[in-house]
Write a structure and sequence with these properties.
It contains 20 helices and eight strands. The chain is mainly alpha-helical.
Length: 538
């Protein structure tokens, strides 16, 4: 009893909370959870921290932004636009930029954080793809991350459109064109979206509600679920001595990881704030208010929508009449290709699991070179994305480098198909070359750069053997074998009926893991039997 009387206030509060919430047991279970220490894991933290920055700055901006398309006459601090009629949305954006204390800096931080948030998620997802961390049991977490990226693209588009300036209005015109290109119901969708004939009077209000309520709520729920699953599943780790599928080598979540994460959050916040302070982004006062009869010269979307813009620019302006309806393929095809291209990377983990038939849990990551076909597919996908993104600025390429815009467009059209195929072949060969290099290092040792002359006059380079840790790292990976095709007849001589899906699965398995797709890794007996001249010992 005396012990409870002498307890500090903090201990009494902790005891009270533990008696009602059971936080002691939860803390003992999760606060000492081990996390591996590798620089690539910081990519996920950048995603989380920029999302937090977006929420904090977004809340501040909502206090001063007026999502209305009612026209007013501007009489604020920015004199070049004094007396110009504009929407309340654009007027409040100017007020935030020039009259609210710290408003312009917060706007800049919010916009830069959005750009970095999408970029970090993109790179983070690619890290998971190339290392194979999407395998069981993390397929759902991969889907949650992919869905976060997909929603972030639209969230960025909506936020980019809210100021109702001339540049964002030009982007809205593209959205209207894509909506109208939807067969049969395109006109109805456009009138519903814009509240009437473009640009309507409801678009900013509707985008505002979706931008600050609907999508952030869904994304916050996905982020929390994503983190819960990260804690629930063991954290993935790169292979090495002492690291298996059943353990995690690293530092405890508390206090080591918490201290590092806290410091890294303020570092990310500081870097974003520094960029926002010195690099202007989206200066809406330069563009002026949106008018349907005007367009901004050299209009470009934010980088993450350059892919969609490029698809529209490289697509020929074809039109066909089908069933009495005119289909504007020049807009409809890019409108469909954009989500389909993202869908390809989203469903890949399930396709690979179906091909391999692997149902085991995987907590050790793959080295990209040890999965040549998967790595080549990822690079091919990225190549198509980057080609389309570069094509989104074909007019700027032409004006800055004094080239023909038609020549650039045709080059982009060819590269959009030939580029991914070429990237696949080159990447696959590079991976196989790196595998051969690893095999040679295990068998012959590491090159030292020292040349030695043998007694009979030959000059050779001295190799020093790898240590056990490095040798293990280069040989621990599995090399799956391709599936064997089922025989045409069963054990009784009866003709077997093989489904088309099974034939396709065998064909894809041979394509991914068959002959010529991987270099046999060095085995321990090979290493022991490899002759080594006594004069070559370091």
């Amino acid at each position: 009893m005396s012990g409870r009387t002498d307890a500090t206030a903090g201990e009494r509060v902790a005891d009270w909370a533990d008696g009602r919430l059971g936080i002691h047991g939860l803390g003992r279970k999760y606060l000492r959870k081990v996390f591996p220490d590798h620089w690539s894991f910081l990519l996920g933290e950048i995603c989380l921290y920029t999302f937090v920055i977006l929420v904090l700055t977004g809340v501040y901006l909502t206090l001063f932004f007026h999502p209305s398309m009612n026209e007013v006459e501007y009489h604020g601090s920015y004199l070049p636009l004094s007396g110009v009629r504009m929407s309340e949305a654009y007027s409040s954006t100017l007020r935030i930029s020039f009259d609210v204390r710290g408003g312009l800096l917060i706007r800049q931080i919010h916009h830069w954080a959005a750009l970095i948030f999408v970029a970090a998620m993109f790179v983070h997802m690619m890290r998971h793809f190339f290392t194979g961390s999407f395998r069981k049991p993390r397929e759902l977490n991969w889907l949650f991350g992919w869905l976060l990226l997909f929603l972030a693209l639209f969230e960025g588009l909506l936020g980019y459109s809210l100021p109702d300036d001339l540049l964002s209005g030009a982007g809205m015109r593209l959205i209207e064109g894509m909506t109208l290109a939807v067969p049969v119901v395109g006109t109805y969708l456009s009138f519903f979206l814009f509240g009437g004939e473009f640009p309507g009077h409801d678009i900013v209000v509707r985008f505002y509600s979706i931008h600050v309520l609907l999508l952030p709520g869904i994304m916050a729920a996905l982020v929390v679920t994503h983190l819960i699953l990260v804690f629930h599943h063991k954290h993935t780790q790169f292979p090495g001595p002492g690291r298996t599928e059943r353990n995690v080598v690293g530092q405890p979540f508390f206090p080591v990881y918490v201290a590092k994460a806290g410091g890294f959050f303020f570092l990310v916040f500081g870097v974003v704030a520094a960029i926002a302070a010195v690099a202007t982004v989206n200066p809406v006062w330069v563009y002026g208010p949106y008018r349907p009869d005007q367009v901004s010269t050299g209009a470009q979307p934010d980088w993450y929508l350059g892919f969609a813009e490029g698809l529209v620019r490289v697509m020929p302006g074809w039109e066909i009449v089908l069933g009495g309806h005119t289909l504007a393929l020049g807009v409809l095809v890019p409108f469909l290709a954009f989500p389909l291209w993202l869908l390809l990377i989203g469903v890949y983990p399930f396709v690979e699991a179906w091909i391999t038939g692997d149902r085991r849990e995987h907590h050790l990551l793959d080295r990209p070179r040890n999965r040549p076909v998967r790595t080549a597919l990822g690079v091919a996908w990225l190549t198509g994305f980057l080609v389309a993104m570069a094509a989104g600025g074909n007019d700027l390429w032409a004006t800055h480098f004094h080239l023909s815009v038609n020549a650039i467009t045709w080059t982009a059209r060819v590269a959009l198909f030939a580029g991914p195929a070429l990237a696949f072949v080159v990447t696959r060969r590079i991976c196989l070359g790196l595998q051969r290099r690893d095999r040679d290092k295990v068998l012959h040792g590491r090159e030292t750069g020292r040349i030695k002359r043998l007694p009979h006059g030959e000059y050779v380079e001295i190799h020093e053997p790898l240590d056990r840790a490095e040798s293990f790292r280069l040989t621990q990976h599995e090399q799956p074998a391709a599936l064997e095709a089922l025989p045409d007849t069963d054990e009784h001589g009866v003709r077997r009926r093989v489904r088309a899906a099974q034939r396709l699965r065998v064909t894809l398995s041979r394509w991914m893991f068959g002959a010529g797709t991987q270099v046999p890794k060095a085995r321990p007996p090979e290493v022991e039997e490899e002759p080594r001249h006594p004069s070559l010992r370091p």
